[in-house]
Amino acid sequence: MKEDTKLKSIKWAATALIIVATASRAFEEHNLDLVAGAAGTFLWLVAAYKMRESALFLVNAVCLGFLLYGVAKIVV
């Protein structure tokens, strides 16, 4: 796969997961919201790194920290 195609795939997968997380939040499926949100945010973090977008990287790094805290509360 070309790098551009890989990056597009990462961004679309991340977007799909964020949409799933948002829909899950609306329907009060909080566990799915946290897990899908964390996965999507992580993929956007990877995409931001590859694109060298520092603002996008920062917002996703901070949000991922909050989401992983939420996931840890579910697991523990």
Structural account:
- The chain is mostly helical.
- The chain has helices at residues 3-26, 30-51, 54-75.
- The chain has one domain (3-75).
- The protein has three helices and no strands.
- The protein is globular.
Would you count the extended β strands for me?
A: 0
- Element order: H for helix, E for strand: HHH
N-to-C span: 39 Å
Number of helices: 3
Query: How confident is the prediction overall: mean pLDDT?
Result: 96
Number of domains: 1
Biggest sheet layout: none
Q: Please state the overall shape, judged from the principal axes of the Cα atoms.
A: globular
> Structural class of the helices, strands and pairings?
mainly alpha
**Rg, alpha carbons:** 13 Å
Concise overview:
With 76 residues, this protein is mainly alpha-helical. It has helices at residues 3-26, 30-51, 54-75.
Relevant terms:
76 residues, mainly alpha, globular
Mind sketching the topology for me?
Elements: H1 3-26, H2 30-51, H3 54-75
